[in-house]
Amino acid sequence: MPSKVIQDYEEIGAKKRADRDSNLIKEWLIPESKLPKSKDVLKFPEESGYLSEKEIEVTTSSAPKIVNYIAEHKWTSYEVTSAFCHRSQIAQQLCNCLSEIFYKEALSRARELDTYYEQTGKLKGPLHGLPISLKDNINVKNHASTIGMVDFCFNPKGGMKQNSAIAAMLLDMGAVFYCKTNVPVAMMMPETTNHVYGTTTNPCNRLLSPGGSSGGAACQAALRGSCIEIGSDIGGSIRIPSSFTNIYGLRPTYGRYPTYGTRSGLPGLESVHSVNGPLCASLESLEFYMKTLANGDPSQYDPGVAYRPWQQIVLPSVCSFAVLMDDGHIKPTPPITRGLKMVTEALIKHGHKILDWNPAEHDKLQQLISDFFVADGGKHVLKVTEATGEPLYPYMSNYGTSSEISAGKLWDLQSKRSAVCKAFLDRWMSTAKTTGTGHPIDAIIAPVTPMAGSPLDKFGDYVGYTSVFNALDYSVGIIPVSRANKRLDPVDKSFKPRNASEKFIWDNYDPEETEGGSISVQIACRRGEEEKVVALMKMISGYLGK
Amino acid sequence: MPSKVIQDYEEIGAKKRADRDSNLIKEWLIPESKLPKSKDVLKFPEESGYLSEKEIEVTTSSAPKIVNYIAEHKWTSYEVTSAFCHRSQIAQQLCNCLSEIFYKEALSRARELDTYYEQTGKLKGPLHGLPISLKDNINVKNHASTIGMVDFCFNPKGGMKQNSAIAAMLLDMGAVFYCKTNVPVAMMMPETTNHVYGTTTNPCNRLLSPGGSSGGAACQAALRGSCIEIGSDIGGSIRIPSSFTNIYGLRPTYGRYPTYGTRSGLPGLESVHSVNGPLCASLESLEFYMKTLANGDPSQYDPGVAYRPWQQIVLPSVCSFAVLMDDGHIKPTPPITRGLKMVTEALIKHGHKILDWNPAEHDKLQQLISDFFVADGGKHVLKVTEATGEPLYPYMSNYGTSSEISAGKLWDLQSKRSAVCKAFLDRWMSTAKTTGTGHPIDAIIAPVTPMAGSPLDKFGDYVGYTSVFNALDYSVGIIPVSRANKRLDPVDKSFKPRNASEKFIWDNYDPEETEGGSISVQIACRRGEEEKVVALMKMISGYLGK
């Protein structure tokens, strides 16, 4: 057999990148010289004059308004799709947030949906005509799912052969796909960069990372290049980027929303499940997505789902919350602490009860989840990276250094994880004795990361604030609280770091560099409590004047 | 250190057995000479004169009637508990169905509940005063969970230290525990026998096995020594015994009913989940259990559960079913085929639609689940059996001969399982094109095993009719259809077995030996469709005149 011609990994990546760029719409391209130099580009799409008033109106509307307007013949799917494609392309030029671009295919699909509606008077489904943006790992037939890995650029040839369960369901409901969003290598790094598409930056402050792994999704949502982004989360991958870009995000519990048939960096890992969820600039859009998908019965598409329709819930008039100010490993930097205090004060002001949350099990949970990620000794990741010789980023060095464990040892780790989750649950339930409401806490309010958006390459090595809730498989929402402000968030020179990870984060905290970075918090409820999470997100965002 | 004195495993088992027997109530003991010699002993408890009329009335009442009568002060928990303890002891004398016996403790708890109700006018919960029997693996504080393994007889000393999540929940709801039921070694054999308590026999025909692993539970439920038995099912362990003893059983999907903190033969295995569910002589009792537990919010007790209250559902007036007459591996013996035809005819007569089910994925699913059981190379089982030197039964020889696989290989098997489950789901959904109802099938009707109760030691090596639904994690009910009848179910001499497993089953089919054995079917719905399973069990049982 002839020896295989090994192409340079950079060459393959460059070709894929060029393919992507060839799908940009030429008439919409902004000349380099007209692109902004500023760090904060959130207002650029609306203030630069490149979008029409109608395009701005469409792209700043919530998803339920858009589908209603289409149903009421006020807007066509074509004009809605075109507006989002246009704004999406501007987002791409500003922050490099996209992997796959297929605006023309989207416009053609939108036209078909419009025709179908005109001719039959029927809507395809509850998402008829609505553009939805997908994270790169969500397979769309005939498009690549590179997940930031060079070997997947043209493998399989001609793109993926099947739609992911969630893509199939959304299409049946009438959605329009127009792009996929950039991710870190194998979606296993907290910053969105890879050897195919390069680095996605944070539109709040382009010196910062939007985080990862749903960094492209969060970036585009913040710039309103989309009204609904679908991301995924196995260690914080929806929550970290949502928190870094000042938008809403939600990580549901596994088994309610479809996940089957996405491309994974760690395929077959089930000790902790990756889940899909929305990232949205508008909370109304997020709620609409959560409700519409749950009610659509994803169990028809995904063998791992049990159907559980969206429930109407009424919050108690007095809720109670446990607030985590510091997990003992890395104390949040000043802007995050300020955000936690703002939320706590708003809750107290509105008559709710506040306790401290003792993170007794957090260390164990985040260690277990780290062990699960490399239970195969990194083999699944290395098989793909080694196929083209692309090097591992420092963030992923453990995939090159871990040893594979046996199935029996994995069973033991899983037993241990269940026991720690039980201890956590028991402590949660035992708060009933101290909340003063007669019930256990309604949620934990916690930092997402210690930072208000991390400077590029400076995330450090800690995702413990988010990963604990993956190990628990809890339902967790992210709400924006404020923006970092160098005047309000000065360096706390009295703080003495307790370990190297904390020192790294605190040494790198520079109020000037972080200026405008996003301040957000997690609202964590128990398994399957998506309705409650959304209700609390609305309640607290309301208190914050959002 | 002094060398540990190794006791003979038989000696340890004998001591544990004697401990159990010492807890029998002397006044209730039936002299050996008065015990029946017949194969079928189902009627003995009521016809032998050992039970009072009141005891018979109580023990043949459904669970909801019992809790209502206690709430209405018609019966006390004490008299209800005493009646079930008495009948339970008769069941034990007839078929050796129990592991732990603690009637006196139960009577004392019942007395406390009665006093509490008298003094406060309040019920402890929706199960106030109701005796419930537990499978041996469900930990009850201060009682052993041997799971049929000699090393667990006195380990930990003094019994288990914590209640299983389900036991804690049932106690909080007011249930009374009075015994635990016998299981096969590690609950991983299809007949209920072990070196501690010996063999449980089938009350329909004591030459037959009640199956396993919830064989003791099924046996006692059939004799109405309980109104609700809780069993567990990882490959058929609720369904096979229910089917062999002519009672109702239900295997729910994982994640709705509590399972945490039970003793497992394969601890930490999550590629397929063991689940708990009811075995009941009365369908009303079964429905009451399913509804009451779901509504009680088990997520407060079990970290693996998401709360999903019981829904009211209305079945379509015309349902459709796919019937599996033969999975291609082992064709059911004549009584089972007759049962399947009875169900099919009843459904057609009532206007429902019937298709054939093509078991295209069954081979793969049952192979995968077999691989998962020994992914650790049998290490977890062997560690326990080797501690006392108890030998492996032939049914478990693969635990001694399998090789452990790596975590990475386990990931690959899990990926494969998900893909096969997806193919199965897609075929299920695609039946919408052929049912004639406009919807996919409502359920699959299938054999439970090829046999109407297996002669002792002759189960063979195949649990593929049940284990496919464990791999799928579907919600599956068992309903009794009829009893084996040598006149109606003669040997089919024309049948040519297609493989050694099938030859073994068919060679061992002896209508004389199987006389009176139970004929039952599975009603399999998709993930989480417990409400639908129960509704279909009621509908079809009604057609069958049950």
Automatic annotation (TrEMBL), chains A, B:
The keyword Hydrolase applies. GO terms for molecular function: hydrolase activity. Substrate binds at M187, S213, I234, G235, G236, S237. InterPro entries: Amidase_dom, AS_sf. Keywords: Hydrolase. Residues 79-533 form the Amidase domain. It comes from the Eukaryota. The active site is at K135, S213, S237. The keyword Hydrolase applies. Pfam families: Amidase. Belongs to the amidase family. PANTHER family: AMIDASE-RELATED (PTHR46072:SF11), AMIDASE-RELATED-RELATED (PTHR46072). This is DEBR0S2_20692g1_1. The lineage of its organism: Eukaryota, Fungi, Dikarya, Ascomycota, Saccharomycotina. The gene is amdS.
